[in-house]
Amino acid sequence: MTYNELSNQIFQKQSYLCVGLDTDPRKLPHHLLSEPDPVFAFNRAIIDATANLAVAYKPNIAFYEAQGPRGWESLQKTLDYIPADCFTIADAKRGDIGNTSGLYARAFFDPTAAGLNFDSITVAPYMGHDSVMPFLDYAGKWVILLALTSNPGSADFQRLATGDKEELFEAVIKRAHTWAGPDRLMFVVGATQADELSRIRALAPDSFLLVPGVGAQGGSLADVSRRGLTAAGGLLVNASRSILYASNGTDFADRAHDEAKALQAEMAEYLAVGNRQ
Ligand SMILES: O=c1ccn([C@@H]2O[C@H](COP(=O)(O)O)[C@@H](O)[C@H]2O)c(=O)[nH]1
Q: What angle is formed at CA 125 by the lines to CA 119 and CA 126, rounded to 5 degrees?
């Protein structure tokens, strides 16, 4: 999906919601456990309930890897089920020396070589340009680089001073701009870091930002939207647990719909105002 196609989806659906498919088999509603593939049955119901409200889906790969070969099968079926008008994110946080990154890229971007066919992957920037470029070698695919993450430990390294009034996450954003433009590169910024969004927008005015951390982690959609929205939309705000596990009964998909609808309705208001600090 291109930059303009993603932006158009946001304005058509009046939403910049990304539904995180962090599907934990231990949290599935009991009645799904007799399904041949309970994880896929759950994801299919969540996708059916939210597809008109979301512009992106983000399976967190850990939840599937932890299930062994069955997990990869559930992931493949889920990816195939996501509607074509939705952007797909492999939240895998990969990155290694070049030849290894090349194989990670193949695993997530190249269905002709037994890989999956995601639109994008999250990548850790710590190993530098040669760990990131192999992902960018895949035309039309996106890299989403960790910049300022939502967790408390983000301060340990990401906020270290790297220059006069510059912190490491800012150096990452500046350097990454020399690798690819906003049409191929996004940044992860936690919703819990909304105070820093104005600074980040100054460095990356046109980039899409993937913003996890509303819902279960307590980030504010209002603050993120006020500081992060751009004329193209420019945000993908992720919620996982607050949508997936809104209920663990037979009504789980309806409750997931309600949670997603509440976020989408709020997003539509912010898009209408179009405000940005
Ligand atoms: O900084 C980051 C980067 C990634 N994540 C991931 O997003 C979801 C958030 O899940 P919630 O249940 O909505 O809290 C999850 O997959 C994380 O691994 C993040 O939270 N923060």
A: 150
Task: With H, G, I as helix, E, B as strand and everything else as coil, classify residue 233.
Answer: strand
Contact 52, 260 (CB under 8 A): no
Burial (Cβ within 10 Å: 0-12, 13-18, ≥19) of residue 66:
exposed
Which residue shows structure tokens 């490491």? 168
Which amino acid makes up residue 137? D
At 221-273, the pLDDT tens digits run 999 999 999 999 999 999 999 999 999 999 999 999 999 999 999 999 999 98
ipTM: 0.99
Q: How remote is the CA of residue 44 from the centroid of ligand 1, in Å?
A: 21
With 0.90 as the threshold, say if the pTM is over it.
yes
Instruction: Encode 47-61: b = buried (16+ Cβ within 10 Å), e = exposed.
Output: bebbbebbbbbbbbb
Q: Phi and psi for 19 in degrees, rounded to 5? A: -90, 120
Q: Is 167 in the pocket of ligand 1 (CB under 6 A)?
A: no
Number of domains forming the structure of the chain: 1
> What range defines the domain where residue 46 resides?
3-276
In testing the pocket of ligand 1, which one of 238, 241, 243 has its CB within 8 Å of the most ligand atoms?
Answer: 238
CATH number at residue 238: 3.20.20.70
